[in-house]
Amino acid sequence: MSTYWDSHPNFVHNSTAPLQKEFKLLAAQCSWKVDGAQYRREWARCGREEFTRHFGSDDKGLDGWQGLCATVGIEEIPDSITQCKKVLRTVWVNIFDLMDAKSTGQPVKKHVSAEALRNYTIKKKKIFPKKAAKGNPFLKVLLIEIFV
């Protein structure tokens, strides 16, 4: 399966580095302005493609849901999709941090509440595009309202 990085053959991607760090290096190499439309479009595309690469988008299989539960650090992995969704709605993790956990092998950073996750997400500028998230069943279950 190809990755977002494959569409930038002149960029030397470190597959174990945090996603945001790698993207900033690519953006600098491509001269994308941080507050520009190209940067925002590519950041959204990067997040969408890398999430699908790490976790897939087939929400019909229990394995995918259980894998997501394991990555977010749920100790007792449920044995049904419904139960996986239910338990995932009680865990507050940043989607980009979730992908970093998959790449780096480090545990994903968990937050104590949706509000704590919201504040962290805004402060660190790790906002996953809502439209892209709603298109992936795994992501939809992790969404919180960022701008209230």
What does this structure look like?
- By secondary structure, the chain is mainly α.
- The protein has one domain.
- It has helices at residues 19-30, 37-55, 62-71, 81-88, 95-104, 114-124, 130-134, 137-140; strands at residues 92-93, 110-111.
- Strands 1-2 form a two-stranded antiparallel sheet.
- Helix 2 (37-55) crosses helix 5 (95-104) and helix 3 (62-71) packs parallel to helix 4 (81-88).
- The termini are far apart.
- The relative contact order is 0.14.
- The mean pLDDT is 91.
Instruction: Report the β-strand fraction as a percent range.
Output: under 5%
Quote the distance from N terminus to C terminus: 37 Å
The gross shape turns out to be globular
H/E topology pattern: HHHHEHEHHH
> What is the mean pLDDT?
91
Specify the structural class.
mainly alpha
Low-confidence segments, ≥5 residues, pLDDT <50? none
Strand order of the largest sheet: 1-2
* Quaternary organisation: single chain
Cα Rg: 15 Å
Strands, total number: 2
Number of domains: 1
